[in-house]
Write a structure and sequence with these properties.
By secondary structure, the protein is of the alpha/beta class. The chain has 8 helices and 17 strands.
């Protein structure tokens, strides 16, 4: 098997155009003192990664893993092994979890090493949100059978945990309904799970989805009510909060027009419907102006409010019951090799992926 490095790149102005860029022998890649080369073993691909690409320029996601001019490497979450290390505290063969490109290898500048992890202090990442620069070292207690759930859900669950915390701190804006678009997405399912587990205040959790995904969303059992996108008008006009995972301008406009003054907060999170963005100025919508929810900002706010230790404890205590439930929702679809990675990427990009399947991919043959 070739040990050449391999990068999957997408054209920033046309996300359907892709190329593989092959480099030299990975074992011959120069490493400076303090650097390590990570061999990327496997990663998850979800609609969340398409959001990274759709907002790649606006929110600097393309800057994490530089590519050729006009091209980008889509960030993903996954697992890697330390192939080579020139840092005394990081051993070859260690298992690492974190934020990677869709590539075979990643060179990191290892700093702030602890038993639990390290930070990639590469200069081009210095001004980017710190949460994405942190890598977890997996020790003897690591359970390999939970890797799929961690890749597919953990980053999305973090975002949902932060949205739940944000809404709770504001007493849910007095809403009696919390309406989530892209109800079959992993981020919406995570948030619905957290919201439905609250004893008080108990707003109705409503999921908006495409007709083809209604049955899956019903099976997940996280929502009080499910409606297709063309059924927004059937929802009761009571005080509501809208959490937009879809980024679909038509659905956003329909929700704002339906609830109007009863809409108490409009929160923009994702772009699973990435081609349906735009199409009107948000300032012209009835009700409150939609506000972008940027998870790294809220991580800092929640950590400061709770303290780092309590924040971590609350996150873990919420994650454990969720992951047990979520493992029953999703069937893992494993694919290996460049052709399989490209096919899976286009499937998710074009919204052809089945909601009850989760892609776990590897560029290794």
């Amino acid at each position: 098997m070739s040990n050449a490095t391999l990068d999957f790149e997408v054209k920033r102005g046309d996300l359907r155009t892709t190329e593989f860029v092959r480099g030299g022998d990975a074992a011959q890649t120069p490493l400076a003192p303090g650097e390590a080369q990570l061999a990327i073993d496997q990663f998850a691909l979800t609609a969340n990664n398409i959001t990274y690409a759709a907002f790649g320029d606006a929110m600097a996601y393309w800057q994490f893993f530089p590519a050729r001019a006009g091209w980008g490497r889509v960030p993903v979450w996954g697992f890697a092994d330390v192939a080579r290390s020139r840092h005394d505290s990081l051993r070859e063969g260690e298992r690492i979890y974190g934020y990677f490109p869709m590539s075979s290898h990643l060179t990191v500048r290892v700093e702030r090493v602890s038993d639990g992890g390290f930070v990639d202090a590469a200069p081009h990442r210095a001004k980017l949100p710190p949460v994405y620069n942190q890598y977890t070292r997996l020790g003897a207690e690591h359970r390999a059978e939970l890797e799929d759930a961690q890749m597919l859900f953990r980053p999305l669950f973090m975002t949902s945990f932060l949205i739940d915390d944000f809404l709770a701190r504001r007493d849910f804006f007095g809403a009696r309904q919390i309406v989530l678009s892209s109800a079959s997405s992993k981020t919406s399912l995570s948030l619905a799970f957290l919201l439905s587990g609250r004893a008080s205040p108990r707003a109705e959790v409503v999921g908006l989805t495409s007709p083809a995904h209604v049955a899956f969303v019903q099976r997940a059992g996280c929502y009080d009510r499910i409606a297709a996108y063309d059924e927004v008008g059937s929802l009761a006009r009571t005080p509501a909060v809208y959490v937009d995972m879809a980024g679909n301008a038509r659905v956003l406009a329909a929700v704002h027009a339906h609830f109007a003054s009863e809409l108490k907060h409009s929160c923009l999170v994702g772009a699973t419907h990435w081609e349906a963005r735009g199409g009107g100025a948000s300032g012209a919508l009835p009700g409150p102006k939609p506000e972008l929810f940027f998870a790294p900002d809220h991580i800092r706010a929640a950590s400061q409010a709770l303290g780092a230790q309590q924040f971590s404890q609350r996150l873990e205590s919420s994650w454990r019951p969720f992951v047990l439930a979520a493992r029953g929702w999703i069937e893992t679809s494993r694919r290996r090799g460049p052709d399989a990675v490209r096919a899976a990427y286009l499937e998710v990009l074009e919204n052809r992926a089945l909601p009850d399947h989760g892609h776990v991919l590897s560029l290794r043959e």
